[in-house]
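Researcher: Structure prediction, please.
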Amino acid sequence: MEGFNENMCYSEVLETLGSGAQAAASNPDPEHFKEWAAFTNNLPLFGYESDCEQILAYVKFGAKHEQ
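Model: Predicted structure follows.
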């Protein structure tokens, strides 16, 4: 397991989250924003033991459902 700070996958995580946040903010449906908030609240974060590949898989899965 690679930690969040041990590789560069965090750049893709942040890019994907940023795109999703922009989409949620520009959607006029308040339910969409609530779903985005729940999605981000459920990110698999475990402090310094966070697995970047696991986080990336989670955000990519969520991004597929944003389209």
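Model: The chain has a mean pLDDT of 84.
Researcher: Thanks, that helps.
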